[in-house]
Amino acid sequence: MTTMSSxxxxxxxxxxxxxxxxLPAIVTKLNEMVEDEDVTAVQLGKIIEKDQVLTSKLxxxxxxxxxxxxxRISTVSNAIVLLGFNVIKTLIVTSSIFETMQTEDVSLWxxxxxxATVATVLAKHHGIKNPEEISTAGLIxxxxxxxxxxxxxxEYEKIVELVAAEEIPMREAELKVLGxxxxxxxxxxxxxxxxxxxxxxxxxYHHAPSTAxxxxxxxxxxxxxxxLIRAIGYGSGGDPWVPELDHDAWNKIKxxxxxxxxxxxxxxxxxxxxxxxxxxxxxGG
Length: 285
Hints:
- By secondary structure, the protein is mainly α.
- The chain has helices spanning about 5-15, 25-35, 40-50, 50-60, 75-85, 85-105, 105-125, 130-140, 145-150, 155-165, 170-180, 180-190, 195-205, 215-230, 245-255, 255-270, 275-280.
- It has one domain: Hypothetical protein af1432 (Orthogonal Bundle), CATH 1.10.3210.10.
- The chain starts with 6 loop residues before the first helix and ends with a helix.
């Protein structure tokens, strides 16, 4: 089967779409401020808090069971101190996407939550600095699937049909129909948002971490997290198959049987605690 669209055509079409999430002006201002080493979390927080709706969404997310902080966080500046600027910025620019996933593709939302949960556990077991960043990368690793479904509906239907007819993974069907997969499409968008490599590289290379041009270990964690959460069966990535393990990536994060059992037990506990996460974010107030 020949490719129905070229990568360049798809990229051009997506650039013309006005409804795709764009980088809020407030984040552009925050980017400028964060370059100044003298700027404090309190000063950054005051800029965010000028937008009441954004502040409300952000504090809901930070206080949700997903992050699991023992005490309630009441100010954005405290959230910045606890999570770091990169995570806060990512939560800001992706908040509209989370809402779309919660209402239009609950199974993919659950899969993304599950991937982020596994990534958090693995990052902590491997002593990764700022594990919340890799958790956030897990949360948006399938961003490209949302873009395809929302902005390329005709092509999306062809992809779904191809997955069923040929019994192939969604990413293979995407390549046949679009000439590009969801991982790369997601990376185009996060690049537009000017997110750091620690977040963008794991998204772009989560199906091929051995080819990552930077942050290969983090890409390996998201790769394995995606595989593990699919094997567990939490949510759905759009097809019923567990992706093939990249053995070079596994060598970067492999664990012994005892440590793997600890990871699985911890993941199981955290997944059980995610049941109310979506409700927490969609409740009014």
